[in-house]
Amino acid sequence: MPPPTEAALPAAKAGQTQDEAQHITLAQNQLGIIQTAFQCDLTRVATFSFAHGNSDLRFHEIDGQVAQDGGHHNLSHDTNAGAAQTRIDQVYCEQLSIYLQKMAMVQESNGTLLDNTLVVFFNECAIGNTHSINRMPVLMLGGKSLKLQGGQHLDFGGRYMNDIWAAVCGAFGTDASFGDAAFTKGPVTGLFG
Q: Per-residue DSSP letters for 76-115?
């Protein structure tokens, strides 16, 4: 298997920081490394974050469709920045889509790499300007080998991520409960068949 090829990192344009100029390219390079590690069975577990929660990346310098100036974290607290925040979320979803399509093209003995990988995509806050973690949207993709019940929208009535992770652990055959008892009620149901 050939090693992953890394795209060259672009130089910053006038007004951009180096991080802003290279943000998307670095993300795709890092996701490519993760994909290769999965393909080589070096690991089947990875975490990836596009940016940290207090990111000052200015998306008007990354994506020309974001009209508002200001760092991502500050925009998440601006109740008048809905269109900018929506476009930032779209940019990240587009990058995730590229990665998932690449995974779906890799054939393995019992399906594709995406079939044999559970991708859990979420933001650390349900609502950025209040830092709410209640009713946080979570998107699960792939996971065919775990019998992920796709194509559905589930409302867990305000349950926390601990309960979702407990359900994921159960799908992998591990009985896990963890976290502060105030934030866990046990595994949610309906995710896996």
A: HT-TT-HHHHHHHHHHHHHHHHHHHHHHHT-EETTEETTT
